[in-house]
Amino acid sequence: MEDGRILGTSANSSNYAANKATIYKNDFLKLLITELKFQNPLEPLESKEYIAQLATFSTLEQLQNLNEQFSTMWAVNLIGKNVKASDEKGYVSGEVRGVSLSQGGLKLILGDGGRTVFLKDVIEIS
Length: 126
Known about the structure:
Layout: H1 9-21, H2 25-38, H3 47-77, E1 82-87, E2 90-102, E3 105-110, E4 115-118, E5 122-125
Antiparallel strand pairs: 1-2, 1-5, 2-3, 3-4
Helix pairs in contact: 1-3
């Protein structure tokens, strides 16, 4: 575990890494087309190699989808529990009242004031 985080170290760290290094379908297809354009005509790749590449890409995409779903389930499971999270001002704690999705990832809605913290920033659950 990094930084003493008990929540989402593997899920959120891998999610962060996956988001950072994700090759989207269009990028993969562009790469494939470029590879086809510049391949040696005397030694072209076999179709089974392309199929293997597509299968690998499809598997990676499905694993990323599962990771996102597990993170969402984990966040929903925290509703009604008290959490402590780090933010730019220090620490914030409160009872999780809901979950929202933002551009930066899943956010937990704390207490009656509606303060939000990223799921990846949770450091304690009670």
